[in-house]
Amino acid sequence: MGLNEELQRTKKQIDEALKGILIEKELYQKKVLEAIEYSLFTGGKRLRPVMAIKSYEMFGSDMTEIMPFAIGIEMIHTYSLIHDDLPAMDNDDFRRGMPTNHRIFGDAIAILAGDGLLNLSHEVILDFINNNARNTDDFRRYNKALWEISRYSGVYGMIGGQVVDLSSKAIDEDELLFMYKAKTAALIQSALVSGALVGEANPDEIEHMRNFGLNLGLAYQIRDDILDMDKDKGIEKITYLTFFNKKMAETAIEEYSEKAMEELNKLSNRDTRFFVDLTKKLIDRNL
After folding, report:
1. What is the CATH number of domain 3-284?
2. Per-residue pLDDT at 287 exceeds 70
3. Where do the H-state alpha helices sit in the chain?
4. 98-99 and 94-95 as β-strands: parallel, antiparallel, unpaired?
5. What is the pLDDT of residue 209?
6. Domain-wise residue ranges, the chain
7. CA nearest 33: which of 93, 87, 112?
8. Which of 101, 116, 165, 203 is deepest in the core (most CB within 10 A)?
9. Is the dihedral of CA 143, 144, 149, 153 positive or negative?
C-alpha cells in the first residue's frame, strides 16, 4: 500500500474513533457540543494522530491501545486551532475553506469549545488508562505518554509557542526558532513519543523518535514559510524568511530533514519506511 493510501486508511480509522466521542448530544449544553463537532470534522488531515499510530506500530501491535492517545492529540490540536482563530489571537475568518468556529458560534462558545476539547482529550485517555491498565507497568507507561502529551501542549510547548507568536512583530531569530519548536514541532513530538511509549519502545528508541519529530517539525514549518512567503510579506509577518533568503531556507530544510532521517536510521531493527516516505512528502510539498 502506498503512502497516500495508508494515510487515508489511517485517517478513516481516526475519524471513526472521533465520531464515538460525542454520543450524548441532546443536552442543555448542546450548543458547545455542536461547536466541538463542527471543528473536529472540517477536513483536517489528522497528521498528528496518524503519526502517533504509525509510531506505535513500529513497536506495538494492538491498535486499540494507541487510539485514545491519538485522538486525544487531535482534540488538543483542534482546540488550539479554534483558539488561534479568535479575534484576540490571529483573528481569522476561515479555516480549511470553512468559516472559523467563532464566526459560526460566537467568541464565547468558541472559547468553551476549545476548553471542552482540551478537557475531553484527557478524559478519553484517562478513561482508557483506568479501564485497560493490566498492571503497574502498563499504568506507568500510559501515564508517561499522557504526561508527554500534556507537557508538549502546555506552557512549555504549544501554548508557550503561541505566546511568542502573539508578540511576533518584535521577536528575533532565536525567539522565532523557539516558537517553531514549541508551536509546530511540539505536537508532532507528542504524537511520536507517546506512540513509542505506548508501544513499549526502549529509552533510546523513544529519544530517536523525539529528535526525529523535532527536526521534522522545523523542516515542515520552514517549508510552510516558503509556501506562504508572498502572503506573509503582505501582512509583514515575521518568519524564517525575515532573517534568511529563500536559498538559505531551502538549505535549512535540507539540513533538518537530513537530521530527521539520521534519527530514523538509528532505528535499524524497526520498519521506518512510512516515516521516511512521509518526511519526503511533507518537505517536498509545493501546495
Report:
1. 1.10.600.10
2. no
3. 3-19, 30-40, 47-57, 63-84, 101-105, 107-132, 136-153, 158-166, 173-179, 186-198, 203-227, 229-234, 240-243, 246-265, 273-284
4. antiparallel
5. 98
6. 3-284
7. 112
8. 101
9. positive
